[in-house]
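User: Before I run my own analysis I want an independent prediction to cross-check against. Here's the chain; please return only the C-alpha cells and, at the end, one sentence I can use as a sanity check.
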Amino acid sequence: MSPSVRLQEMIRVIRGARTQGEERGVIQRECAAIRAQFRQADNGTRSHNLAKLLYVHMLGYPAHFGQMECVRLIASPRYNEKRVGYLGAMMLLDEKQDASLLITNSIKNDLSHSSQYVQSLALCTLACMGSAEMCRDLAPEIDRLLRASNSYIKKKAALCAVHMVRKVPELGELFTPAARSLLSEKNHGVLHGAVVLITELCERNPDTLEQFRKAVPELVLMMKGLVMSGYSPEHNVAGISDPFLQVRILRLLRILGRNNDTASDAMNDLLAQVATNTDSSKTAGSAVLYETVLTVMDIKSESGLRVLAVNILGRFLLNNDRNIRYISMTSLQKIVQTDHNAVQRHRGTIVDCLKDQDASVKRRALELSLALVSAVNIRSLMKELLLFLSSCPPELRAHTTSGIFNAAERYAPSQRWHIDTILHVLTTAGGDVRDETVPNLIQLITTATELHCYTVHKLYRALITDISVQSLVQVACWCIGEYGDLLLRGECEETEPVQVTEDDVLDALETVLQSHMSSPATRGFALTATMKLSTRITHNVDRIRSIVSIYGSCIDVELQQRAVEYNALFKKYDHMRAAVLERMPVIDKSSPGHTNGESAGGTIKELEPTKLTQEIVFPQEPSNQVSDENDLHLHNVFNDHLFLVLNSMISSDRFFFLFVAIAPPSVTVYEKNGVTLKLQTDTQTDTGMTVTLTATNSTDGDITGLTLQAAVPKSVQLQMKAPSGDVIPAHGLGQVTQTVLLNNPNKVGLHSDTVQIDSFPSTAW
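Assistant: C-alpha cells:
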C-alpha cells in the first residue's frame, strides 16, 4: 500500500485483513507513512493524513502522535483543514493534555470569524473538550455570541454555555441575562438550547431558580403553542410537534414548580391539557406523556391531576412496548405510598405483568404488587402472589417469599390464614426462605394456642409427604416435639382427623434423622423432638432411649452433645425428665431483645403471669444458628416460685441447675427435716445483685456446722460474706443469715442467683 493511498482504500485494505496480525501490520505501515509526511513541509495532504489517523484511532490503535498536527490544522486558514483539525482535537485531545491549551487562542480567533461555519466549529470543540481554564478565558466570547442575531450561532452558543456552567458553576451569573432573553426566540433550535441552559442554571443556583420562576407563564404559553399548533413538517415527529422541545420544557417546569404553590398553580391547566390532548400510540407521544406524569407528581398539583397522571401510567401498562411498561411500573412504584388508592385501581393490570416474559418487567411487577398489598385485598392478592411463586424464576424466589412473609405478618386476617400461607410458601419454595423464617413461624405457632392441634396435624402430613425442604421439616419436628400428644390424640376440629400411632411419629422422625438430605440443624430439631416425645407417649420410651443413645457417638459434635445430654436425662436425672421436657412457654416477640432470627436472646414470659412477674433475660446466642429455639428449654415452676432452666450446653458430668428470676422477692428454696432455707434479693443494679440467704430451724435441737455454697458462671464474680453464725437455734428462736454479692461487669446475660444446694447429712441434727 503506497503512502499516498486514499482513506477509502486504506479502510478497504484494513477490512480485508484475514487475521489480527495482518491488520496490525497494515496499520503500522500506514502510521509510519503518516509520521513521515507529518515531518515534511506542508504538501496539501495534512488533513488527508489526519483523517486516516482518526480512523486508526477509532479502531483502538495509538494515535497520540497526531495531536500537534491537530493544533497546526486548526490554525490553518483553509476551512477543510480547519474542520479536520477541530474533529481531531475533539477525538485526540482532552483537558488533561497540555496540547489543549495551545488551541485556546485559535478558538478565540475563530469565535470572531466572519463565517458562521468556522464559528460553529470552534463552539462545538469548546463544548466538547473545553477545560475550566479555557471556559474562564472564553466565557465573554460565548456571552457575546448568545446575543448574536444568527440563530444558528445562538443555538450552538447556548449548548456551549451549558458545558461551561457544568465546568465552572460561577459562570452561571454571566449567562443568566442572555439565557432569559433567548426565550423570546421563534427558532426551535435556539429555544431548545435556551431551555437546556436555563435548566442547568436553575439546578445549580437557588437564586437563579427564584429568578426564572417569573418566566413560568412564558414557558406555559410556549408549551401550549406546541400542543395546539397544527401540522408543521419541519418539527413534526409521529404526529407530535417537536416532542424534544416539549420534553425539555416539561423538565424545566418540573424544577420551577417543585415546592412552590404559585408556579404549580400556573402550570396545572397546561399539564391537564397536555395529558388529555397527546396521542400515546406512538413513542414520541408516550415520551411527552411520561414527562408530564413526572412533572405532575413532582410539583404541588391538584388531586384530580394526580389521578389523571396515574391513569396515564395505567394505560402505559397495556402498551406492547416492554420498555414503556417498565418505566410505567417504575414510576408507579415511586408514588404508590402517596397515591395508594389511585394506583390500586390498576392492580389487575399490574398483576398480569407478573406473567410477562421479560425478567425486568416481571421484577418490577412483583415489587409493585407487594407494595399494593393491604388489609382489604390481602386474600385476593396473596392468591396471585402464591400462584406466581410456584412458577417464578429462581432469582426472584427469595424476594417473593420475603415479600409474602412481610405482607402476611402485617395484614393477616387471622392466625390460621397466616400459618397456612407460610406453610404454603415453605412447601413451594422452602429452600429460598430467609434463616429467620423458622423461629418466626415457631413463635407464631406458640401464640396461636387454639390452633396447636390443627398445626401439628398439618405439619405431620407435610413431613411424611416430603422431607427435602429443610425449613419445613425443622418447623414440623419442633411442633411434633411440643404438641405430639395432640397429634396422637387424633381429635382435631379444624381438620380431618387422622389416626396416628406412636410408631408412625417415631418412624417419621427417624426418617429425618437418617436422611442424607437433612442438615445438621434439621437433625438437631428431630433429635430434640424425639426426646420431648418421651414425656408425651407411653409405650415407646425404650425406643426413644435407643434412638438417642445411637447419636451419642455421632460424628457431628452438636448432635453428639445433644444426645449425651439427653442420655443423662434418661439415666442420672430421669426423675426430672418430665419437668425439663415440658412445653415451651409463649415467646413474646414484641418484647425488648427479640429480633428476627435472634429469638434465643429475647425476653421470655411464663404463660401464667401469677407465677412469674419478673422477666427472665438469657444470654445472647449467635443469630446464625437456626436451631436457637431448641437450644433453650424453659420449663415449669419449681415449688411455684423458681424456674428450672436446662441449657443444651450442659454435659453429663457437670449437670447443675440455674435458679433465675425469683418472684416474689423472698423464696423458700429448701424445707426438709425442720430446716428452712430462704433466699431474698435485696438490691439489684445493671451489673450487680445482693442476695441474702436465711436459715431457720424448727426442730427440738440446735443445728451446728452450717455451711452454704454457691456456684456461678465464669462471666459472673461471686463474693460470699461471712455468715452471721454456724449454729441455727432450735424451735425457730433464731436464724443464720449470709450475704452473697454477684457482679456481672461485662453484662453478659445476668443470671439471678446461681446456687447449688447440697443435701444436709443426717448427722448434722
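Sanity check: The first strand starts at residue 236 and ends at 237.
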